[in-house]
Amino acid sequence: MRNIFFAIAIFFSFPALAAPVQEVKTKAGLIAWLVEEHSQPLIAVNIAFRDSGTAYDPDGKEGRAAMVSALLMEGAGAMSSQDFTIALENSAVKLGFSADDDNFYGNLQSLREYKDQAFLYLGMALTAANFDDVAVTRVKNQTKSAIKEQQEKPAYRLSRAWQKQVFGNHPYAKEELGTKETVEAISVYEMHEFTKNYLTKKNMVISVVGDISASELSALLDKNLSALPENYNPEVKISDIKLPESARQTVIEQAIPQTMVNFGMGGIKRADPDYIPAYVMNYILGGGGLTSRLALEIREKRGLTYGINTNLVPMRHVEIFAGGFATRSEKVGEAIGALKDTLKNYAENGASDKEIADAKEFLTGSFVVGLSSNSSIVNFLTMMQLQNLGIDYMERRNNLIRAVTKEQVKNIAKKLIKLDKLQIVMVGKPQLEESKK
Amino acid sequence: MRFFATFCLIFSFYSLNANASELPITSFTLKNGLEVIVVENHRVSAINHTLWYRVGAADDPAQKSGLAHYHEHSMFLGTSKYKSGEYSAIITANGGEQNAFTGRDATAYFINISKEKLPLAMEMEADRMRGLKLSDEDMEKEKQVIIEERRLRVENSPEALLNEQIDAALFRNHPYQTPVIGWMSEMEGLTKEDVIDFHKKYSHPNNAILIVAGDVVPDEVKKLAEKYYGGFPKVEVPKRIWNVEPPQIAERKIIMHDKQVTQSSWSRVYASPSFGNDKKGQVLPLFVLSQVLGGGKTSKLYKALVSEQKIATSVNVGYNGLAIGAGEFSIDITPSQNVDVETIEKAADIEIVKFMADGVSDEELARAKTLLKAETIFARDGLSSIANIIGYLRIIGMPVSYFSSWGELVDKVNKEQVLQAAEETLRKEQSVSAFLLPKEEKKRVEQ
């Protein structure tokens, strides 16, 4: 089947796509990556602003990026919050903003017939948000309520403890929503400053998939996004993180019937030539749902968990190789023992020929299935741009995976899996001694 | 809201058929009673293969809650042809994604895979329809896995625990009162024999619906279905006999305190019409009602409680009409700081009374319809969501042809119907009001 797949690739840039990825340069100099897909009257747009995420929240103003993401939906230009929502609903435009540690995102979905309105409202939100007092007060109250609500949630406590242990004092450990005090401290002026300094043409990445031509897109971008500021002016410079040098295990005590566990160590940069071998290596270890080594050891053989997974997380200032699972408290010691044994064995011996062949078949074969919707393709385009993978990456991607060797997987497993640096954080009431067999 | 999103997929079929039959739907039945539905979508060279069985948690026998779900898990534990775990391993090694889900009304097994692997998908799925072969050891371990699943999804979360209590209070006699995953006390007693008995009773072609969506043509699917499923005999399946819910005449209130709760919340769930029991055409009006009452910042409840009175920080209204038994119409509200849940309940009730007096404006109705119809087009993006909605509707008993009339039905919904559906559904005596509160700070004498 591989040959058939390859033959198709000669005629089309990528078989999942109706058209190749185009780089659209507008008259005003904006750049977007576009995949035209005219089979359905739909358009999906993703805009990312690099290096504008929650890590850039100033000290004492944690929660700023998250709050701006909510307030961009609360009225712009001459439109009040109510007017703006009614306008979106009347054109069935789906618009939303969000932030992760590194970046700030805008997401737009529209029917073709409402594309003019969709781009208009996107542009208004980004360039002319009102931040009016009533809306600011309401969003602050909503944020404070959300902050209060998460305090005793095991998943939140786990994620906080993990951030503190692994990221230390680095801005990646900042509270995403802020605290009651920092939310109160964020001023309207500071939110305006955020849009001026961070939501700029300089650090913007645009991805579009759907029923729209390059010339239509070009005109709509110029009309609605030209007013964005030219220059990106961050207030701070974020440094790279040095991960903890020695293994550490933290227990957050909470009276819950099941203990939740996060584990991990250093990962690999997306730009590293060994990233793809590492990707295959991770898939075999814990990326493959029910069939991964860890799932077989912890779930299938021992019945200790409903699910266990691992991921490579290449962030802007650190690379993590991490995973998680949950198990009944009396079995935590046994599960962690099995986890460490599996990691150790994999680091020493690597994967079998069959595991590697199966992994390659899944990762190449499922690529087409994973890119069967506009929204999945547009997210992939954004990732390609943010990680500087090149506009032809989709074409190259499966061949990169096919080229991975057993030796590479073994080497990268050995290089990344370091039990003496393993970070473990858990929430619950775990019994940590391994029960005798 | 998950159900709402999937529900909306259906509308696309109207538009698609009306336009250029871009996603034509074909259905036929094999001699052994297996119903087959093909949804053509040639955009990507991939397919979704889903096998639905007309059996779910509502069919769990007395004292065996969780059995349908345990059986679903056991379907991955080997047949006379494939060893335990091989099903997942083979599908995955061929580039396929696979999993399964159990609901109250149905169980479904799906595979998303490139189109040339359709014969493989069908062979593997057909094999476990009849060939299940389970070991004691695997079944004991799998029981621990589903118990861990219950701990993960339910026991660790006060919201999930409360939702179970809401359903148990909402349905006093109907089997929807029992959680799909099962009560912990009964899950522990499930056995391999229970599963085998369940499998023998229900896993037959005449109790199943096969949906293949994607880059295929009906003839190809027919040939393959006859080859892989056609050899199984038709076997009589037990009739689904469910306890009947008596008229609901008493308003119920339930209160839960939990240490994890730092922010109180209030919710109310009304037993409502559903696709399965909709005698008066109230399902679509209820979708409109959920939008007008609580579907975003322009909705009645959000405007009144969040924007104007400032006593709440969030309002969510959801309607799940995808059910054979009763549906559920729900309202969830988070109070602002220093506002108690009783104040919220009173304020919500006042708004509902106002709504009954004022009704829906032309503008609100038009906007709700625009959104409902747009969802139908957004739903064309993707492969398996469409297959899922068709499958569920067929499980409920709607004819395949029903889809084509839906767009028209949305357009026909009028203000009087919305108001009437509201009057008949939003009755306190058909509801459970739930209060989720922090642990009471009482000094207790430790035992």
Structural commentary:
The complex is a heterodimer of chains A (437) and B (447). Chain A is of the alpha+beta class and 437 residues long. Chain A is 44% helix and 18% strand. Chain A has 16 helices and 11 strands. Chain A has helices at residues 2-11, 64-71, 81-90, 115-128, 133-150, 154-167, 180-185, 188-198, 214-225, 275-287, 293-300, 332-349, 353-370, 374-386, 393-402, 406-416, and strands at residues 22-25, 31-36, 42-49, 94-99, 104-111, 204-210, 248-253, 258-266, 308-314, 319-328, 423-428. In chain A, strands 1-2-6-3-5-4 form a 6-stranded mixed beta sheet, with helices on both faces. Chain A has a 5-stranded mixed beta sheet with strand order 7-11-8-10-9. In chain A, helix 10 crosses helix 16. The two termini of chain A are 46 Å apart. With 447 residues, chain B is of the alpha+beta class. Chain B contains 17 helices and 11 strands. In chain B, the strands form 2 sheets. A 6-stranded mixed beta sheet of chain B has the order 1-2-6-3-5-4, with helices on both faces. In chain B, strand 4 and strand 5 form a beta hairpin. Mean pLDDT of chain B is 90; it is low at 1-21 and 443-447. The interface between A and B is large, with 72 and 64 residues.
